[in-house]
Structure formats: C-alpha cells, structure tokens
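TASK: fixed-backbone design
INPUT:
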C-alpha cells in the first residue's frame, strides 16, 4: 500500500505493483509504503482519500504468479511449498466445525508436488497442472488464506477472491451468503468496491500518468517517454508467451473461473505481459 493524506494505492500482487510504487514515490514523494500486498485498515478505508488499484489480464496473472514462484518468489509459492499451518484462516470464526479437516489438509499438503511444479519456468506441463490443482479445488485448502471458506471458490478463482478482498471495507461478507452466486458477487462489488481509479498492467505508465493528470500533477512529455521506455521492476523470468503455456483446457479454465475480472476489465486471451 502506498499512502498519502490524499491517496491510497492498494496493490494487487503481480499487477505491476513494484513499478507503480516506484512511480508514486517519484511523483508523489510525500507518501510512504505500508506493508506490501495487504489490505488497508478500516480507518484508512473509511477516509476520504482517492483509492487506486491495479489489475492484470488473468491469463497473464496466473502465469506471472507461477513463473515468479519458479524463482522462489511470491505469496503463493511460499504458502504452497512450506509446511506452515496458517491458523489465522483455518476457519475458527467462519466454519469452526471444519477445523480438524482443514488442519490435516494443511498439514499433509503435498509439498514435494508443489515444489516440483515450481521447479522450471519453461515447463508448460507443470504450469497447467499448477493451474488445475489451484482452480479445480483439488487442493483448495493448501494456500490457507480463506479462499476455500468463501462461496466464491465454488464459481470464481483465486484472483477474483484476492481482488474483492483487497478493495472492500466489508471483507466478512465475502465468506457468507452475500456472495454465494455470481450475480450476488457482482452486486457486492458494485456496492462495496472502494476503488476510484484502476491502473491496468498492460497500459501501466499511461494509466499512471492519466491518474496524475486527474489530480492536477503535470509531467513533461520527455519524462513520460523516458519512463515508458524503461524496464519494469520485478519481472518474472518466463521466456515464452501465453500460447506456449496454455492449451485449450487451461485457457477455458481461467476463462470460466475469472469471468468476473475478464468481463469487468474487458480482457481477452492474448499475450499482453
């Protein structure tokens, strides 16, 4: 999160957030970074700040999450490849009757399997199996961050879950009947999403400078051009495009599970990373 008295940038992981942080620090230097991908406090959420988010093509997002994990980086890689029990999301408050089941699911998660799937960023079969395990609910409790306890997991993917959780001050509703159908989830987003402006990873610098323009910060064209032509931060090391990694089955899996993000931000399956 990047915070000033007037703005709050809530960072969706693997959406260009490291680069966006650097841009905010350069052009709005009075702000400060608080944490990394975590949500804002209730006090911040209820303030009159302008809230900015960032988003990415879902097919590219999953590939980036996985390929970054192949470099031993990222939230999902850490949670899937280490035997740590995440007591904060085992369901004490949400579904306490499932405690023992979820505990053993976490305790016996197949670490070697996950580590193998994160072992080679050029292995398309590993990527497809990673997607299948993650989105077909075969190992839904392994991540341990609450996704399995939300009705969202029945019809939408992990990216949608993270997106909704990060951008609302009504997080508890995500775990109950308020979002137990696709239409209810869309209504929840319309009512409770706090974002005022969104930066798309595929148009990152232009969207960022457009945002600065809305708050009356002017940037010279030559400065914009220099930044647009520079390398982004925190790139993963994948060397192939989407068509190499995705087959028909995996493409349709993301299309079905991330229908919400795809429709809301008009994404298509094409290499934009």
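OUTPUT:
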């Amino acid at each position: 999160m990047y915070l000033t008295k007037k703005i709050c940038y809530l960072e969706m992981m693997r959406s260009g957030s490291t680069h966006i942080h650097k841009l905010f620090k350069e052009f709005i230097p009075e702000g400060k970074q608080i944490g990394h991908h975590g949500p804002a406090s209730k006090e911040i959420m209820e303030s009159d700040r302008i809230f900015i988010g960032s988003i990415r093509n879902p097919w590219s997002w999953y590939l980036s999450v996985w390929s970054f994990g192949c470099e031993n980086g990222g939230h999902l890689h850490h949670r899937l490849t280490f035997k740590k029990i995440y007591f904060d999301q085992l369901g004490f408050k949400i579904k306490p009757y499932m405690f023992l089941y979820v505990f053993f699911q976490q305790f016996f998660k197949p670490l070697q399997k996950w580590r193998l799937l994160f072992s080679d960023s050029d292995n398309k079969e590993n990527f497809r199996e990673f997607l299948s395990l993650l989105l077909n609910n075969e190992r839904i409790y392994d991540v341990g961050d609450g996704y399995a306890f939300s009705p969202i997991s029945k019809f939408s993917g992990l990216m949608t879950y993270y997106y909704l959780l990060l951008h609302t001050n009504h997080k508890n509703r995500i775990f109950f009947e308020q979002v137990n159908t696709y239409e209810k989830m869309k209504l929840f987003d319309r009512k409770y999403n706090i974002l005022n402006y969104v930066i798309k990873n595929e148009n990152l610098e232009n969207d960022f400078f457009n945002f600065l323009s809305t708050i009356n910060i002017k940037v010279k064209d030559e400065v914009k051009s220099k930044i647009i032509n520079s390398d982004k931060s925190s790139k993963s090391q994948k060397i192939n495009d989407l068509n190499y990694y995705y087959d028909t089955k995996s493409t349709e899996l993301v299309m079905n599970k991330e229908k919400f993000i795809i429709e809301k931000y008009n994404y298509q399956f094409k290499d934009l990373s």
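COMMENT: The chain has a mean pLDDT of 89.
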